[in-house]
Amino acid sequence: MAGFGQDTSGDREGERVGDELADTTPRLTEAIRGRLIAAPVTPMDESAHIAPADLDRYAAAIAGAVDGVCVWAHTARGLELTDTQRDAVLAAFRAATDGPLLAAVGPPAGTGDDFASQCAATARLAERAAAGGADALMVYPVSSLRAPQTRAERTIRLHAEVAAAAGLPVTGFLLYPEAGGVSYPPALLTELAARPEVFGVKLATLYDAVACQDAIAAIHAGGALAITGEDRMFGPSLLWGADAALVGVAAAVAELSARLVHAWFAGETAAFVVAARRLDRFAAAVFRDPMDGYVQRMLWAAEREGIIPAASAHDPHGVRPDPAERAAVAAAYRDAVGG
User: Fold this and answer.
1) How far apart are CA 134 and CA 142, in angstroms?
2) Is residue 285 part of a domain?
3) How many helices (H) and strands (E) are present in the chain, helices listed first?
4) Among 275, 246, 263, which Cα is nearest to 40's?
5) What is the dihedral of CA 221, 227, 229, 230, to 10 degrees?
6) Keywords assigned by UniProt (predicted)?
7) N or C: which end of the chain has fewer CB within 10 A?
8) What sign results for the dihedral spanned by CA atoms 193, 141, 250, 89?
9) Looking at the domain assignment, is residue 224 inside a domain?
10) At what angle do helices 151-166 and 10-21 cross, to 10 degrees?
11) Angle, vertex CA 191, rays to CA 77 and CA 174, nearest 5
12) In which domain, by residue range, is 147 found?
């Protein structure tokens, strides 16, 4: 494989990766279609220390309620963790789940802004995920993809080279710009979705219903799964054609999240509507300004649920919402689960 900072033949790379993943990608696609993948938080104290027992207990609780897990995502502050912490989180969830285990990969905090550095750092993290037992990867959008004149070429290269480095299939990640995401236009989404190493694209447009619907159509045109990550448009995004879910809201209230997804794909309309209404009210209390505070709010919800102790319900890496919001999150939790 050519170096990350060098020009490569995209077609040749695609053929090689396609040969290696020809069996793995279709199996993974069918394992995720119609299923719920949770993006869990990382239980930490105020000093960013992870208590192994708390992590293991939380991993067992979440994995037991959902179909699969994506570790190291933004909800987990994956790019802020140390390598040792990432390894511990992956190991805990690998031990807890028999379902698909994805790892979100990107350039860890402190990586340079140039494409070669970001691509190489993402590939190194992908290799670490593969060594730890991950089944697939979700590729963070990186800042060096934003330039319009190189966006398409670099986006395709990033996903192809990361998949090749790890030997694992990948999903893209359409993330709203305010969270550091990159706007992948429909034509690029279709091209990305048609790649042999790509089994899907996760959608997290947050509030842009039109962009979400256009993206679902574009991904389907490329032949991949449209995977909703729309915590504030969860039910609607399934109505619009999403094939599966990978959501941070399932870092707590995982059973309700699973009920929503499973009811939809089973054609149980009445159960779907009930679950969607409850989950939407909960998400409205959690995914709100300051938006980055949702991680702390989800930790509070997991604490209220009894799956994380208070000592490990801290987000030392992000925005800290007003502590007074804790009561609102607890009330939303009670409303959602009825207890």
Assistant:
1) 21
2) no
3) 13, 8
4) 246
5) 50
6) Lyase
7) C
8) positive
9) yes
10) 40
11) 25
12) 10-271
Residue 44 bridge partners (DSSP): 313
CA distance 117 to 30: 34
Q: What is the CATH number of the domain that holds 260?
A: 3.20.20.70
Residue 211 covered by a domain: yes
Q: What is the dihedral of CA 264, 283, 204, 297, to 10 degrees?
A: -140
Q: pLDDT: is 280 or 27 the higher one?
A: 280
pLDDT of amino acid 277: 96
244: nearest Cα among 256, 230, 258, 227: 227
Mean pLDDT of 76-98: 97
**Contact present, 40 and 77 (Cβ < 8 Å):** no
Structure tokens at 137: 């990867």
22 band by pLDDT with thresholds 50, 70 and 90: low
Assign residue 247 a region: left if phi > 0, alpha if psi is -120 to 50, beta otherwise? beta
Domains in the chain, number: 1
User: What is the distance, to the nearest Å, from the Cα of residue 294 to the centroid of all Cα atoms in its chain?
Assistant: 14
Mean pLDDT of 42-68: 98
In a domain, 308, yes or no: no
